[in-house]
Structures
1.
Amino acid sequence: MFKDKNDVRRVGIIGVGEYLPKKVLTNADLEKIVETSDEWITTRTGIKERRIAAKEEAVSDLAVKAAQAALADAGVLAADLELIIIATITPDMQFPSTACFIQKSLGAKKAACFDISAACAGFVHAIVIAQQFISTGLYKNALVVGVEVLSSITDWQDRNTCVLFGDGAGAAVLAPVKSGGILSSYLGSDGTQAELLMLPAGGSRYPTTHETVDKRMHYLKMQGNEVFKLAVNVMADAAQIVLKKAGLECSDIDLVIPHQANIRILLALAKKLNLPEDKVYFNIEKYGNMSSASTATALCQAIREGRIKKGDIVLLDAFGAGLVWAACVIEW
Ligand code: COA
């Protein structure tokens, strides 16, 4: 088996896939729903359009399509999968885990299944978790999916938030690799900032009642300005930490795949890391913020577009509600 200098298995991403719903919601469409403008949305966020799942599409439906593409790319049969981790804040239901619905649709009978809640940093968290299981030898492979139907928790009367989000799914298959793979990782959190971004009702704190629905507490609430200020710093810090752990410098990075929350956050991150913009991957213009699916689809698209080549150093870097943040350095 392939081991690194610490005598644990090297783990890499051996296949990726994505699925984006067909329906496109443009800024012009949003102008008809709330008091906003294409000009405001574009200059403040960098978003031009986003995808919206069809009424009959739940998160697991999007995830299965992305997963099938990733399994085909990796050349792994669903029947041989040993672990499925789904990163989502919009599960099909409170329980059972969305991972179990996906297991059923894929026919991945052997796989252990669970979901994780790490919001927009969920995909990177799930990659790091899967790496641990594979590097210790407990499982031979893992499927990780970052997937959201954020349109289901978006308040379409709140212009502060409804212009930002979209729906989508991105998947990756992880397995032992001979060389390269995940070189270092880091997970961080600050629960004192939990109030900044949340879905208040529907859990045990505020079970769903007529009152919670009347108060629109089953929709996402965000203090955007405060999140913005923290985002750049935590992403930059996480990047510095994983690079140091891997014995690398910012100048060694070939491509950053960041969480796509706001173009201004990404440009500020590039500046802080002293990286030219062409070393940062953006898909926010077409898809908005898809939470855990943003990093996942961005990785898949960057590979498909030839932006990542064998031997490249890739930095995954994300933050989200919690606040939580996560980064990892991967040698491709
Ligand atoms: N259209 C037009 N005007 C809008 C608007 C919209 N869709 N949304 C807000 N505004 C208005 C506000 O009401 C405010 O008006 P006021 O000055 O009259 O009160 C004004 O625009 C500025 O609001 P502000 O919140 O200061 O804007 P901003 O420059 O901070 O941009 C965000 C707002 C949400 C785009 C930005 O803060 C952001 O991206 N934050 C991070 C969010 C994030 O990353 N969330 C996900 C975490 S994973």
Note: The chain has a mean pLDDT of 96.
2.
Amino acid sequence: MTDKEFIEEIKLLGINPTQEQLSQLEEYYNLLIEWNNKMNLTRITEKKEVYLKHFYDSLTINKIINLNDYNTLCDIGTGAGFPGIVLKIFYPHLEITLVDAREKKLKFLDEVIKKLNLKNISTKHIRAEEYSEKFDIVTARAVANIQKLLDYTMHLVKKNGYLIALKGDIDSELVEEVQTQINKQYTIKNIIKFNLPVEGSKRSLILIKNK
Ligand code: SAH
């Protein structure tokens, strides 16, 4: 998507970007491409594609929850910072922890945080299952199937908080796995499916509440 399409589409999500936020995003893109030459961060490198499949995609969380209502967020398996860094840029009030089991990618994220002058955001090199903080919101994009996500991350979600899984197409996985995983402790609050603008890839968001 072009810059113009990006702005139009995130406005439809309820986000009115400032010039500073758009500049931060552009700098993030430049750093991503620069560091991608040294380490494997993303196979998507064309600008229009990164803006659609990484940046816009990260912000679709707004379809399922209003992040203005929450304070702390942990992005599990953040990789090159999706959705964590993008959310920090557009929801600067959030206190964000970016977690990944791979240390190398976190070096890149430390540099992004420094260069974009982002505050109240830090990186943590740990496996989700060994981590023991609590957050209002835990996000995970393209990290594991729902069964594993529930096993690895629900202990990080505060009571009345949410796990949000950002996924591609989930048809078969959902019916067979998610339903059987739900127990008295947590519940599926919402599942939404939609297509990305411009080229129509299938996406799903799953919202799970820790009761
Ligand atoms: N969320 C990013 C990266 C997805 S790739 C994106 O959407 O582009 C999955 C990432 O999860 C990898 O960086 C991997 O190192 C990390 N990961 C997988 N299992 C993990 C675990 N149990 N704890 C922490 N990180 C994990």
Note: Residues 76-80, 82, 99-102, 105, 127-129, 141-143, 152 surround S-adenosyl-L-homocysteine (CB under 6 Å).
